[in-house]
Amino acid sequence: MYDCVIIGAGAAGVSAALTLKARGKNFILLGNPALSAKIGAAEKVTNYPGLPSAEGSGLKQAFLSSLSASGISVTSAQVTGVYDMGGYFGVLCGENSFESKTVILATGVEAVKPVKGELEFLGRGVSYCATCDGLLYKGKKIVVVCTSKELEEEAEYLASLASQMVFAPIYKGAKHLSGNVRVINKMPAEIRGGARVQEVAFGGETIPCDGVFMLKSALAPSALVPGLKTEGGHVVVDRQCRTNLNGLFAAGDCTGRPYQYAKAVGEGNVAAHSVCDYLVENK
Ligand SMILES: Cc1cc2nc3c(=O)[nH]c(=O)nc-3n(C[C@H](O)[C@H](O)[C@H](O)COP(=O)(O)OP(=O)(O)OC[C@H]3O[C@@H](n4cnc5c(N)ncnc54)[C@H](O)[C@@H]3O)c2cc1C
């Protein structure tokens, strides 16, 4: 059982990890080992202290160096659910799961709004996780919407299973996927069906399908954690980064604006300190 599972290796998650390490806690940092694509995205960062006129890529390298200097590695995982087990948490990542006394959500925000019909058909043909649900669609027709290059590996896995796949990457420079794959470079307008998904409308064209995968960097926090209080899509936290669920903390963009490195780093630090206090209080 971990003291803490940190979900998301962005500015907030990295900061929380550095503090938990300094405090000698037993934790795991889940996310992308190459860190959040957003950390490296800025052309020029002028508002982060200590690194005048850094480029996003330079900031990312500095974050990676901090992790490596502290002996912290990121465990590659996409978390699909966090469950309050009454006194501890179960963190689900496809086929793997972790148990932890506390959790820090540092998942950032997904700029892409849900497609019409996406939430309605969630679990009835719409999935967010290739590893969890991919095999259900072996030999079937699927549509895969991908919001970030870092998720292409999941799309590739789905292409290897499906009999026919429409791949809709909504970023530039998508890689060519092998298999029976047709590319449509746009977001679907609507997912439709009856008891289950039957088709996806892309503007003028309708694609009949058995399932739809929406591969996103960040799921809505309320979809990730049942019972979590959110407002306007953001996790509601107090000054100690505590959520409405005991032992569950949140930090960074996922708690609301401003979406900035410094705020994310600051909240990651606060959340880690709150975890330490919680562990003492709940020995
Ligand atoms: C183009 C661009 C330029 C920017 N310029 C600036 C700037 O100049 N100054 C500034 O202060 N800010 C800037 N920002 C904002 C800054 O990048 C963000 O505020 C910051 O990265 C937020 O950190 P975070 O850790 O909260 O979230 P993120 O950096 O988004 O990290 C969250 C990570 O969690 C991962 N994750 C999400 N869900 C899961 C899950 N279920 N399982 C596992 N991992 C998950 C995501 O994939 C992501 O890697 C810029 C952003 C962009 C996009």
Percent of residues in β-strands: 25-35%
Radius of gyration: 19 Å
Shape-level CATH architecture of the largest domain: 3-Layer(bba) Sandwich
Number of beta strands? 17
Query: Major sheet, described briefly?
Result: 7 strands, mixed
The name of the CATH topology of the largest domain is FAD/NAD(P)-binding domain
**Amino- and carboxy-terminal Cα gap:** 13 Å
Can you give the mean pLDDT? 93
Give the % helix.
10-25%
Ligands and ions found: flavin-adenine dinucleotide
Order of helices and strands: EHEHEEEEEHEHEEEEEEHEEEH
Helix/strand structural class: alpha/beta
Number of helices: 6
Low-confidence stretches: none
Shape: globular
Count of discrete structural domains: 2
CATH C-level class of the largest domain: Alpha Beta
Q: What would CATH call the homologous superfamily of the largest domain?
A: FAD/NAD(P)-binding domain
What is the structure about, briefly put?
The chain has 283 residues and is an alpha/beta fold. Bound molecules: flavin-adenine dinucleotide.
What features would you describe in this structure?
With 283 residues, this protein is an alpha/beta fold. The protein has two domains: 2-110 and 218-281, FAD/NAD(P)-binding domain; 126-215, 3-Layer(bba) Sandwich (FAD/NAD(P)-binding domain), CATH 3.50.50. It is 23% helix and 27% strand. It has helices at 11-22, 56-69, 130-133, 152-161, 221-224, 261-281; strands at 2-7, 27-31, 74-76, 81-84, 89-93, 96-105, 126-127, 141-146, 164-169, 181-183, 190-193, 197-202, 205-208, 211-215, 230-231, 234-235, 248-250. Strands 1, 2, 3, 4, 5, 6 and 17 form a seven-stranded mixed beta sheet that branches. The protein has a five-stranded parallel beta sheet with strand order 7-14-8-9-10, covered by helices on one side. Helix 1 links the parallel strand 1 (2-7) and strand 2 (27-31). Helix 1 (11-22) packs parallel to helix 6 (261-281). It is globular. The two termini are 13 Å apart. The mean pLDDT is 93. The protein binds flavin-adenine dinucleotide (FAD). Residues 7-13, 30-32, 36, 38-39, 41-42, 45, 47, 77-79, 106-108, 217-219, 224, 252-253, 259-262, 264 line the site of flavin-adenine dinucleotide.
